[in-house]
Write a structure and sequence with these properties.
The protein is of the alpha+beta class. The protein has two helices and five strands. The protein is elongated and about 75 Å long.
Length: 129
């Protein structure tokens, strides 16, 4: 009968060391989850809140729904956006995702006064000037 108690004690010590290993693995996985998903999401939320607080009239913004508009006026929790000439809508400040730069000429695209037609370019190349 004494041998049975020793056998039971030896099997429980093996399973308890496996339990500690399992617990350590769970803690490591939660730590990894925190650094991969939760922390970057909090940083994005903090940046969005800072953008929403510092937006000014005249700024071009993108809403969380993906609509581009120009800020016309600011109120306490609301912002009035102009989505088309003469069309103004009221949004919550929280709906502003980010401030975007004004649209301009594309990179690599010649300025309008410098553009020339394909025929003019061929003539210049053929005449050497």
């Amino acid at each position: 009968m004494g041998n049975e108690i020793l056998a039971a004690a030896s099997t429980t010590s093996k399973s308890s060391s496996g339990g500690y290993l399992f617990l350590v693995a769970i803690v490591v996985l939660f730590g990894l989850l925190y650094f991969v998903t939760i922390r970057p999401q909090r940083n994005r939320q903090r940046m969005a809140q800072q953008t929403q607080r510092t937006v000014e009239p005249g700024a071009r913004v993108r809403t969380t729904a993906g609509m581009y508009a120009t800020v016309v006026a600011l109120e306490d929790q609301d912002v009035i956006l102009e989505v088309a000439p003469g069309v103004e809508v009221r949004y919550l400040r929280r709906a502003i995702m980010d401030v975007v730069p004004e649209p301009g000429p594309e990179v690599g695209e010649p300025a309008p006064e410098q553009s020339e037609t394909f025929d003019e370019a061929e003539d210049d190349a053929a005449t050497g000037g």
